[in-house]
Amino acid sequence: MELTERDLIRNCQKGDSAAYEELTAKYYRRVLMVILGIVHHREDAMEVAQETFYKGFRNIKSFQGGSSFYTWIYRIAVNLAIDFQRRQKRAVADSRENMDDVVVASESLGTDPYRELRDRELGERLLAAIDELTPDHKAVILMRAVEGLSYKEIGRIMGCSEGTVMSRLHYARKKLQEKLGPDL
Amino acid sequence: MSDCDRIQEWLGAWLDGELPQARSAEVKLHVEKCAACAAEKVRIQRLDAALKRALEARVSDAAFAPFWAGVRERIAQEKSPRQRVFDWMRRGVAFPRIAWGVPVAAVVLIALFSTIRPSGWFVPSNQASVESIDGHGFNVALLREAKTKTTVIWLFENQETEDENPVEPAASEQAF
Ligand SMILES: [Zn+2]
Question: Domains, chain A, ranges and CATH?
């Protein structure tokens, strides 16, 4: 019988690391996506994501189910990623080195070669453009566009009001649209 | 501000389903009639979709096994509080540890002096105060004693607190 998420969390709280492994397997990609959007470098993103799940494990006993596990782990992820991004002082040129990953990784997408090419180019430009936003703006647009979180959930994660989420989101979308111009 | 400018301010929130009903109806009505705002709506949808696709592509080859191995390694490296104290004492003979001992002893002494004074001498402004600041991976305790104007700064390794929100919310900088 498959365990529900609530059962898994309860087992984790009793120290069952296999249950935590199962929870991690369920969410690691989604968490990684948002972190990657904020910190840009894939290796850095992996480190921050692993640290996120490690911190989640250490603090799972304090998780009371007031929010979903997913929002809870997101909160850890986004705050660690923003913190990491604020501290890192890498040159912009250096931050472009991993762009080749996009080309390699997107090979598996779709079957229409024209669409694939267009998506790939757009994706590269988009990821370069998003890197120019502040960490707060990045986090907000990623949580909305990638994860579809509500403004309320985003506000809880970021520690700001829904109104602030709305203005940041509007600003971030506008900036990205300006950068991408007619390509969208 | 023209009608279109005003509507375009709300387009994103409308697509996100975050507008109050009356405003949502207003935006919907406008978009149905206005080609420029309808095109803007499509651009926002494309932007969100392209962002999601680009990131999905970048994590599509991130296998679980090595990811979990990294998490497990962090868990395995974690030491119990008892082990930490033992390690600290074992290395206590080394000079840097003795150096740490000096401010710690000062903290204890000043704290003692500030609390055992006879009540007749008690002046609130002379009390020692201890503040704790959470740094990155370290706690910083500041002990201030008003009378002698002594400040002791004490750094010690961060012990995770067991609360619902293990990481503080990101500082809410107004960056727009
Ligand atoms: Zn219009």
Answer: 1-98 (1.10.1740.10)
